[in-house]
Design goal:
Elements lengths: L1 E2 L2 H42 L5 H4 L2 H25 L2 H16 L9 H5 L3 H17 L7 H17 L2 H33 L3 H6 L1 E5 L7 H11 L1 H12 L2 H19 L9 H6 L1 E5 L6
Antiparallel strand pairs: 1-3, 2-3
Helix pairs in contact: 1-8, 3-7, 4-6, 6-7, 6-8, 8-10, 11-12
């Protein structure tokens, strides 16, 4: 056996890239069909209009949605005008609006934030808004009336299915956007667990320890983490909203790219191979 040169590894990488594109495409189609169908059924239930690929582009669907949204707002406004004076209604609207804004500040946005947005979260937003209205001490407002209004607003919003439809749509969009990253990491994990990707298997390449002996999970997973550190850091940054991780991911892109060029040297090992104590060999052994 001999260590694989850059040419063989490049050929395996091209094969892996081709397989990855195919897998990503299949995953997106399956997810879009399954998730999109589920979302369409929810939207159809909420709007009362058949939702499919043709109606999504039609004015009827969006006119219906706009009409339902305006109806919801008008209903809430009617409840306000019936129960409160104009001055009280304005004070309450200001207090509620300010509280609701606290849930949608850009600095709070993250993948985790959007994925956790659900009906309970919407109820918590409404509760927080009305708690702020109570704490603001609006002049001559009966607390019992305010509590009744809180329940009415929740009921109106639930009737419009904002608590299920909008979170489902946001979750669908987030997962669809993340899917290529997740498929890439999952495909690379095969190599991190067994020492061979599909491209390496076809090319007759295997990741071994530096001395040519079989590599087990420890060094293989370390090599996987180092090689895929840009994607791992990007996902962590999106989930945790830590700017440092995003910057570290950008730096990791350059380090991994330059580190891969090191394999052109006499040792035929990339930087992540040196750090993990591994090397890529060409050939097969019976115990693999």
């Amino acid at each position: 056996m001999e260590r694989a040169g850059a040419g063989r590894r490049l050929g395996a990488a091209i094969l892996d890239g081709l397989f990855l594109v195919i897998l990503t495409g299949i995953s997106i189609v399956v997810f879009a069909v399954a998730g999109g169908t589920r979302l369409a059924l929810q939207a159809q239930s909420a709007l009362g209009v058949p939702v499919n690929m043709s109606t999504l582009a039609s004015e009827e669907l969006w006119d219906k949605y706009e009409a339902r949204a305006e109806e919801t707002v008008r209903e809430i406004e009617r409840r306000y005008s019936n129960e409160f004076s104009e001055e009280q209604a304005q004070e309450l609207a200001d207090a509620v609006g300010h509280a609701m804004e606290q849930y949608f500040l850009p600095e709070q946005f993250s993948v985790q934030y959007f994925l956790e947005l659900d009906a309970d979260q919407l109820d918590r937003m409404i509760d927080s808004a009305f708690d702020a209205a109570v704490a603001s001490g609006v002049k001559d407002v009966d607390p019992a009336t305010l509590e009744s209004m809180r329940s009415d607003v929740k009921m109106i919003v639930d009737d419009f299915q904002l608590g299920t439809l909008i979170p489902a749509a946001i979750s669908f969009a987030v997962w669809l956007a993340l899917l290529p990253l997740l498929v890439t990491l999952a495909y690379g994990l095969v190599e991190g667990l067994w020492g061979r990707s599909l491209g390496k298997l076809i090319s007759g390449l295997t990741i071994c320890k530096a001395d040519g002996e079989r590599a087990y999970s420890g060094p293989l997973l370390l090599r996987y983490a180092l090689k895929n550190s840009p994607l791992l850091l990007l996902i962590l940054a999106l989930v945790t909203r830590i700017p440092f991780l995003l910057g570290a991911g950008a730096v990791a892109v350059g380090v991994v790219f330059i580190g891969a060029l090191v394999m052109l040297g006499p040792e035929r090992r990339a930087i992540y191979d040196y750090l993990a104590g591994t090397a890529v060999y060409h050939g097969r052994r019976s115990d693999w």
